[in-house]
Design goal:
Layout: H1 6-25, H2 30-41, H3 48-58, H4 61-66, H5 69-73, H6 80-101, H7 110-121, E1 128-134, E2 140-148, H8 158-168, E3 172-178, H9 188-201, E4 207-215, E5 218-221
Length: about 240
């Protein structure tokens, strides 16, 4: 174990205090914010090289916090406890957004909804399909991981979605999935699956609010891209 002399220790403590003050002043660079975060998980080590190395490898804060825990643990010098600490920040952000979306109409704060979607499925190595079930005021009732697939495919089961929506007494649903390959918009199978789900839900009075696709850090809306022929505007009555 490397010994730290009094001068090194003084600089180490002083540097972290300067980081905290810069945080309070709102002047931290991204890599310094990561360094500050890591300093709480690894209190007895200089984490500047680790923070810079992670930023270089992953390309930014968002890819770091959304990376699978096993990928984080592969990075030299980043152990299991620190990886869990980083992922707990990710989970806290998701939970905060989910609570907010459960308390108001989701389209009242579209930015929170899109941020939530990016945090939920962005950075995943395989496709995931989530179904967000919405109540009578379009507040979030539940977000279910519907299926997990491969790098370019995930299955949806419309009848299971219908059953779950009826169980929750949901009035509408929102489809959400990701494409691990950046900048890939809706595929033809995506559109067909969405239209099929809408047709199955319609006879029992459940609306399809939208279908969101996350790819390359961008949220694509099937509604806004006019890819769906029959989805009405749920905000017309408000």
């Amino acid at each position: 174990m490397k010994n730290i002399n009094n001068g090194d220790l003084s600089f180490h403590v002083g540097h972290r205090e300067r980081l905290r003050q810069k945080f309070l002043d709102g002047h931290l660079a991204d890599y310094e914010l990561l360094e500050l975060l890591l300093s709480f998980a690894i209190p007895r080590r200089d984490v500047r090289p680790l923070a810079r190395g992670l930023m270089q490898k992953f390309g930014g804060l968002y890819p770091i916090i959304t990376a699978p825990i096993e990928i984080l643990m592969e990075y030299p010098g980043l152990g299991r406890n620190t990886a869990i600490f980083i992922k707990s920040v990710h989970q806290i952000m998701l939970t905060a957004y989910r609570c907010d979306l459960g308390n108001q109409k989701i389209f009242h704060n579209e930015k929170n909804l899109t941020n939530y979607c990016i945090l939920q499925v962005g950075g995943k190595q395989v496709e995931e399909f989530h179904i967000l079930y919405l109540g009578h005021d379009y507040q979030l009732l539940a977000d279910d991981l519907h299926s997990r697939g491969t790098t370019d495919w995930a299955m949806i089961y419309p009848r299971e979605i219908l059953k779950r929506a009826l169980d929750l007494n949901a009035e509408s649903v929102l489809m959400l999935h990701n494409h691990p390959t950046p900048n890939m918009t809706f595929s033809e199978p995506d559109i067909k699956a969405t239209e099929l789900l809408e047709r199955i839900l319609a006879p029992v009075g459940i609306k399809l609010h939208d279908h969101y696709l996350v790819s390359g850090g961008i949220v694509y809306s099937a509604r806004n891209m006019f890819l769906l022929k029959h989805i009405g505007d749920v905000t017309d009555n408000f």
